[in-house]
Amino acid sequence: MRMDPINLHDFEVRAKQCLPHNNWDFIEAGAMDEITTRRNRTAFDALTLRPRFLRDVDQRKLSTTMLGSEISFPVFVCPAGGHKLAHPDGELATARGAGKSNTLMMLSTSSHYSMEDVAGAASAPLWFQLYHRGYEFTEMLVHRAEEAGYKAIVLTVDTPVPSPKERDQRNRYENPFPLGNFRATTEELPAMSGTDEAPNWRPSPTAPLTWKELEWLRGLTSLPLVLKGIRTAEDTHLAVENGVNGILVSNHGGRQLDQTQSAIEMVPEVVAACKGQAEIYLDSGVRRGSDVLKALAMGVKAVGIGRPLYWGLAVDGADGVHGVLELLRKELDQVMAYCGQTNVEAIEPSLVNIPDGWGPGRVAG
Length: 365
Ligand SMILES: Cc1cc2nc3c(=O)[nH]c(=O)nc-3n(C[C@H](O)[C@H](O)[C@H](O)COP(=O)(O)O)c2cc1C
What we know:
Elements: H1 8-18, H2 21-28, H3 35-46, E1 48-49, E2 64-66, E3 69-71, E4 75-77, H4 90-100, E5 105-107, H5 115-121, E6 126-130, H6 135-147, E7 153-156, H7 166-171, H8 189-192, H9 211-220, E8 225-228, H10 233-241, E9 246-249, H11 263-274, E10 279-283, H12 289-297, E11 302-305, H13 307-338, E12 352-353
Parallel strand pairs: 4-11, 5-6, 6-7, 7-8, 8-9, 9-10, 10-11
Antiparallel strand pairs: 1-12, 2-3
Helix pairs in contact: 1-13, 4-5, 4-13, 10-11, 12-13
The structure holds flavin mononucleotide (FMN).
């Protein structure tokens, strides 16, 4: 009998075995030489733990909140386009899996199921990830997200132009499914589908995304606003000045711009600049409970997983997504006990050794 996956790496291996080659490559790919994608892992490995003992760690609290949304542990599902690539039930299965784990899911603008259908399948909080492709489309999407009960808008800022992945170019890859949020507007799709994933997307000269659009978006909705992809002190200052409620430190899993630092390396700079004025989250490279703990010790409120959600979906649909999340929960719980920590909301900063050279960047916090 085949053993269940015992960690996320097992899920990865199994997913590779069951996914069509081109879908696998599309999911795993990073931009260009994939250096940043690899660095997302090596940077976590460069952080080491300073365990504390002789403490009562019998009771451990993993539950927390993200801008008021309650979650059972500090791991959420990242926004990622097109889950049908890994399972026919796509984002419906992902929402069910996240629901079983009672944690938050961010739904991509480029989902294969509509945001209304996903809301119908969800039992845990949902946030809507927005690609801004012009005022009209953003207005339509944000109002629908409000109506459907999404609790925050996550604006992705790190994709000003498409980023072709060389693996996809080599495979002549085309995403075979239509995007669920735009069924009624098929003819407009090439102009606005707005994902790094849409092969026919061209950036529209009429749809720039600047701090001016952010101000407009702020006025459009009373939902909390999170910026995904901010990585520097300079942009953190501007984000806070512009009334942003959360910052998701992310390099898109290394899928957009190669040759940057890993996301976790940018956390000290962003945390120092933010001065507690917004909640800080992280994604890119999280694969172990110890990664979660390291990020929390550095001032992050919760972390997201991108590729692993596809691995879970590919292996076992909603149960696979749930399985991936539960492995991370188990590992986090265990590593907390080993490190003398009992509450994810009060993880000690001294828990982690940060290599020399990390920390507030060139611009003073
Ligand atoms: C196949 C795929 C599609 C993605 N699509 C989106 C998207 O539509 N919007 C977005 O903001 N991020 C998207 N991302 C990036 C994720 O939200 C997240 O930043 C990244 O996957 C985290 O890194 P990890 O894969 O190492 O966990 C996508 C990632 C993958 C792997």
